[in-house]
Inverse folding.
């Protein structure tokens, strides 16, 4: 009986094992994990720390016993794989409780080792009270620490997904939380202005958010707990520290076995998840993927793609090959009642890829019609290709209906859809769910207007640039008075038709309003009257998110 | 200056007027409505009756003054169009308050008269206390009636979208509600088994739901209010009656003007929303549309398509022609905490179109991972084309995350996507938002398994049919004991590998579990062991929704 060994029993490895059994009863399948558990819910760990998830056993999606009884899969937990001998096709194992070593032969090997937390070489990271969060025991230790030490404060190093989720969950338990983030924004995959609502919310909920500052080191605090020192020279105390700087692929085993790594340091695989050794597959956070649809190399540790990679590898091993499509980078994070989500390209990623064949629109629609109670605004940024109109990416931040719009855009991107498809998409509408023109329709309509030449956009980034232009604020005088772009002239939209004679014909007129709708009407009016008109997208709200210092003043 | 007259100032008409002004400053645009209001939120009316929306003025999306000041559009409210003289290109108008008649010339005419409530020729429909709901005054009258008469009960005739929303809102105001629906299900666009959770919920919330019974007539009740008589002979009292049997296109004007009507009785238009007279366009609920993507004629009164049709007509009139794509029939209804939504084809619509080249899967996943608190099941039914895998339609019912999945499927259908695209779609995942395998991924995976031959489906409809088969229940004995399909044999999944010898090789084995997952594992195991195995899709939950009498027992 052919033998398949799968190393790593969480998302990718567990999916691969179960799928492979469904395809092939005639294989001997062994699932090996260094930890005590397989198939546990690692995305749930922050919520277990926060006591939103109260029972540890809920995190066990499947137990070793279930794998053995239901799927006839041998499971070896607390077993470390010391080496892969590719010539002899054996793995060298160490049973961790007993220390006993053994060998296990394979015909096919699947590596699903995941990614481990980045630990920078800084003083104090081994002190008691310093944690990372990767496993159930990690989360149990943090819970235990808080309980035992009556911890009242924490520092989270890193403002990515896990850092934000942990900040929320520690605050949920009553701890005073400080986030130290080297970059000038949290949730680094987002474009900076799209992270701005998150910064506001974190601060509003009492988080001490220190952007643009890195950890310098930790020391024991004579008063108990830890003394935190940052690169900027700041010092403060914290009852515990959580390292959430990021993760890097676990490639030690692959590297020592002589498998090819990619340029970003992940295990290199082909579209069928095969490594440079045809008998060895690799799936999950440890592999380098190609982005979809733009086929750039990336490290994107996401549970969904890991699961689907596991299934692809299983099908290929079972003799039913099909390719993995790649990773779009769809991701979501909930923090203090706000949801931030994205799919596809960001302006950051497009610039990094040296692309300039794109345009962007900002909008801030309600998540449902305004006339139904409790409509919450969604900050949306849509990126699309010029001149094709292909949807490149969507970012969204708000309280409600955020992930829905990103999911629909994710499907549009998966299908190669354009902004014209968003414009015409037929989505659910009743007053409590959306609008006859859903936010995504509106995003598509604005973008389609741009491509059809019905709307001329300016770029907020060019506001300070030289050039003879007039900034026109078409909001009502009261709105203008409560804050406006420096130097802007105010003519309310409803008076514009009558007062257009006040405007110069030789200068560009850059119009804005609160969210971009009235300025679009103004733009249409002015263009038709022969003015050189442009629209500043997303209105004053976008201006504020691009210039957060003005919104705090 | 060329003159454009638009008749009907709500969704399609108002959108057309505003878009047309944005395209063309050089047209004289006149918007005419019989009522006192233009651009009001008719989808919000049930919620205004229910006092969820408290202020009437919130329903006014735009006022005549706004149209005039902002868009330079003449608005004539309380103005009836008596006739269209196509030869002379004039409309004959009647100012309703004064009764004065006049004529208004046009170069281009747009008809957006909407659809009106069906009023069957039954006795008593003109009695005081009998209402339909189409306008703000209608909703105001119902509110006034309830207040004045201290109404404590209501009968809603018709269980479609408006009937359900009104039932919820009247109950929300404390009225005891009876629904009389001629069909054996509410929300007629759904397949019957998908409406079953709605029936349960309505009954659980105290609604007296009378399915398969029609209104025979109404009489004044000597004790006050109305006496309701149904076709089955039942009689009961109600403080008010709401007619929500359905709507039919307002075509009187079009018909009298000699415009071509379609076979279903709506105004016939081409892809550019042009009627049989090239100077006259028609948009919204009054027109017959083609379904997308299957191009069948239909009457689908939906606000989203009406808006987009208005925009298309405006662009065509403005000299920038583009076609309207058609209507998918995406719709959603919220009732007593349940959301029911659908897009594309249903099994009903496929059967009506004599199509048999499709397959279906049922599933009942949680709206997010089970380990995070408060996961709510979604009843899903996915229809797809054989052998292409093209997504034909999705129906979903549940408490949370329902419209999101339907919106993503709507986009997939818009793009011609397949179940393989659902399988590989990369959607937002964090524990509170979804799952690493989102319900849509799982639906796609099951359907893809069917198309790849990895899963053999049986049809619940064939359960009673002749044929040598064994029904196998692979749930645990306790689940089996609490209710099972008559005649089913119980072997729990975890024992199946060891006990497969107990099963016959010459009979088909139709397996089911609670929701379809364990029976899928069973199906794979049995197929590989050489049994003639099939899977009953959606498990015992689907069996109960197909056989509701058993779940009530």
């Amino acid at each position: 009986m052919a033998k398949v060994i799968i190393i790593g029993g969480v998302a990718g490895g567990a999916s691969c094992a179960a799928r492979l059994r469904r395809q092939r009863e005639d294989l001997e399948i062994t699932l090996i994990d260094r930890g005590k558990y397989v198939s546990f819910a690692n995305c749930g760990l922050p919520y277990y720390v926060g006591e939103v998830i109260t029972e540890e056993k809920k995190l066990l999606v499947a137990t070793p016993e279930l794998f053995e009884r239901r799927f006839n899969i041998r499971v070896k937990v607390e077993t470390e794989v010391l080496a892969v001998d590719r010539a002899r096709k054996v793995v060298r194992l160490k049973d961790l409780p007993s220390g006993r070593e053994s060998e296990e032969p394979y015909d096919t090997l699947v590596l699903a080792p995941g990614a481990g937390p980045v630990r920078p070489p800084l003083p104090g990271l081994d002190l008691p009270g310093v944690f990372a969060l990767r496993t159930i025991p990690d989360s149990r230790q943090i819970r235990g620490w808080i309980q035992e030490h009556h911890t009242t404060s924490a520092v989270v190093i890193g403002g990515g997904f896990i850092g934000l989720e942990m900040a929320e969950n520690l605050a949920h338990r009553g701890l005073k939380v400080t986030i130290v983030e080297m970059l000038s924004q949290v949730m680094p995959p987002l474009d900076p202005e799209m992270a701005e609502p998150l910064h506001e919310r974190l601060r509003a909920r009492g988080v001490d958010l220190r952007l643009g500052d890195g950890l310098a080191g930790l020391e024991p605090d004579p008063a108990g707990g830890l003394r935190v020192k940052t690169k900027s020279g700041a010092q403060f105390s914290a009852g515990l520290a959580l390292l959430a700087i990021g993760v890097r692929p676990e490639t030690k085993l692959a590297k020592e076995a002589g498998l090819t790594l990619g340029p970003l340091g992940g295990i290199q695989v082909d579209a069928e998840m095969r490594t440079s050794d045809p008998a060895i597959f690799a799936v999950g956070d440890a592999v380098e993927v190609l982005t979809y649809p733009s086929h750039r190399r990336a490290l994107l540790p996401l549970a969904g793609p890991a699961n689907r990679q596991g299934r692809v590898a299983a099908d290929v091993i079972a003799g039913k090959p099909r390719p993995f499509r790649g990773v779009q980078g769809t991701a979501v994070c909930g923090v203090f009642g706000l949801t931030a989500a994205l799919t596809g390209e960001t302006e950051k990623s497009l610039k990094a890829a040296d692309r300039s064949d794109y345009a962007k629109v900002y909008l801030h629609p309600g998540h449902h019609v305004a006339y139904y109670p409790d409509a919450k605004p969604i900050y949306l940024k849509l990126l699309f290709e010029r001149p094709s109109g292909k949807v490149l990416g969507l970012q969204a931040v708000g309280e409600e209906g955020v992930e829905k719009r990103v999911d629909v855009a994710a499907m549009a991107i998966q299908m190669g859809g354009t902004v014209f498809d968003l414009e015409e998409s037929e989505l659910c509408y009743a007053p409590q769910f959306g609008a006859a023109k859903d936010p995504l329709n509106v995003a598509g309509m604005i973008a389609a207007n741009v491509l059809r030449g019905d709307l001329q956009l300016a770029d907020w980034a060019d506001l300070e640039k030289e050039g003879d232009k007039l900034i026109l604020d078409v909001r009502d005088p009261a709105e203008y008075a409560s804050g406006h772009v420096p130097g802007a002239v105010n003519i309310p939209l409803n008076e514009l038709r009558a007062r257009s004679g006040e405007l110069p014909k030789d200068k560009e007129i850059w119009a804005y309003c609160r969210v971009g709708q009235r300025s679009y009407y103004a733009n249409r009016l002015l263009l038709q009257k022969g003015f050189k008109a442009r629209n500043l997208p997303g209105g004053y709200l976008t201006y504020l998110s691009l210039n957060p210092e003005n919104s705090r003043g």
